[in-house]
Amino acid sequence: MSYFVTFMLYNYFIKRNEELSLKTLLINAHPDFNNLNHFSNQLQELFLAKYKSQFSEDALTIFNLYDLDGNLPRIEQNQLLKIWDKKAAGEKLSADELNIAQTSERLLKEFKEHHRLVIVTPLHNFNITSRLKDYIDNILIARETFKYLDSPDEKGKVSTGLMTDDYRALLLFASGSVYSENNFYQDLDFAPQYLKMIFSEIMGFDTFEIVRAEGTAYLPKNEILDKAKENLDKALKNFY
């Protein structure tokens, strides 16, 4: 093989790897996802403005979890639980079950194809929204995004992540109170910590950044968004 051909192939694979690493999946988990009065949606708009100024929109996929008319597969008796049991037993799926299974498989495939993940969510009742949990149940799959170990490691962990090929996550998170400071609400800040553990520790993502719009119930809007913009700029330097 000539030097020129080798050089061209090398450049092709470098460019291809860069394109793959920049593919971004934006998951909006707000029930009122198209209402820009909500701070999490305003964080999304800030992100999109910065993204579009640097990258092609062809590499961006936006997925609104509450725009599915109830078609997000769930761990329920007549949905994923039954499907998984029937698959394990080698039984044929019904037409409805096959449709649910294919939707779940498509969500997983799409998730794995994007090396950059942006999650947009408010804090609802001190936790993530219900459909965000449903979405996670479709992508946190053994032998796909993580695997179990034969024995615990030195930390006692019995699983390891499979999403280790430069996957990075960014959480755009809005809350009515301030949870990031040493106050009463600090111990209730488990929603972002849950997401960080799932993606970083369980799936193996390289990084997990958090940008907050917090204190939305009482702080001035400009103060909240100015701080969020500053933190978003910092996070994006490590995200792309």
Structure in words:
It is a single chain. A five-stranded parallel β-sheet has the order 2-1-3-6-7, with helices on both faces. It contains seven helices and seven strands, in the order αβαβααβαβββαβα. The chain is of the alpha/beta class. Residues 9-17 have low confidence and may be disordered. Helix 2 (39-52) packs across helix 7. It has a single domain, classed as Rossmann fold, CATH 3.40.50.360. Strand 1, helix 2 (39-52) and strand 2 form a beta-alpha-beta unit.
Identify the notable features of this structure and list them briefly.
single chain; 240 residues; alpha/beta; Rossmann fold; five-stranded parallel sheet; two-stranded antiparallel ribbon; 7 helices; 7 strands; 43% helix; FMN-dep_NADH:Q_OxRdtase_AzoR1
Q: Concise description?
A:
With 240 residues, the protein is an alpha/beta fold. The chain contains seven helices and seven strands. It has a five-stranded parallel β-sheet, sandwiched between helices.
- Any low-confidence stretches, pLDDT <50, length ≥5? 9-17
Query: In the CATH classification, which architecture applies?
Result: 3-Layer(aba) Sandwich
Question: What is the H/E string?
Answer: HEHEHHEHEEEHEH
Give the overall shape: globular
Helix share, percent:
40-55%
Count up the helices.
7
Strand order of the largest sheet: 2-1-3-6-7
**Structural class category:** alpha/beta
Q: Tell me, what is the CATH class?
A: Alpha Beta
Quaternary structure state of the chains depicted: single chain
- In total, the number of domains comes to 1
Biggest β-sheet strands, sense, barrel: 5 strands, parallel
How many angstroms separate the termini? 34 Å
Total beta strands: 7
Percent of residues in beta strands: 15-25%
